[in-house]
Amino acid sequence: MINLYKLLILKLLYVIKLLNLIYINLYKCYNEIGDKMAEKIVNSIIASLGSFISIPFMKEIIVFIISLCPILELRGGLIAASLFDMNPIESYLICIIGNILPIPFILWLINKILKFMKDSKNKRLNGFYNWLNKKVDKHKGQIEKYGYLGLVLFVGIPLPGTGAWTGCLIASVLEMDKKKSFLAAMLGVFIASIIMMIISFGLLSNIL
Prior knowledge:
- This protein is mainly α.
- Helix content is 80%, strand content 0%.
- It has ten helices and no strands.
- Helix 4 (73-83) runs antiparallel to helix 5 (88-100) and helix 6 crosses helix 8 (164-173).
- The termini are far apart.
């Protein structure tokens, strides 16, 4: 029983350290990110964790948490999974779940959070609100023009600045239907997952 408690405490400390590392790396480059930058960040996180990786199920936890995070999302999770030499199918399922999980929270809650940040007297929150507004203004054109198809493509094509987090943020700010936006974002995540599986695990070379 004592050994079980020790293992649980180690896992908890590991998760806290992982979240801190992700936050630091995201803060450094939260402006724009491409696949090369995503890989660089993931490599940095993995290298910093050292012996923690040997704890049972820690690789899966890393991949899941990275997939949950804005900016890195599914692309970062699959890159991490490929670096860990994990099973592609297992990696795919973990990353899909991790990337989809935040979507309903963003669509249904982000406008309230944005209003809170806008009205806050805290300058950091105001600054973050202004940054998010600029990000929405910069990327909303495609979604504004093509609607839900634009949202699918925005989430589904893994380019710098795109992804489920940003796509759902824009959909919320534009006050698009939440249920339709959820389905569009889900479809986009599945498209992005196929593209990133081919890139991260080199599936195309195996098929050819």
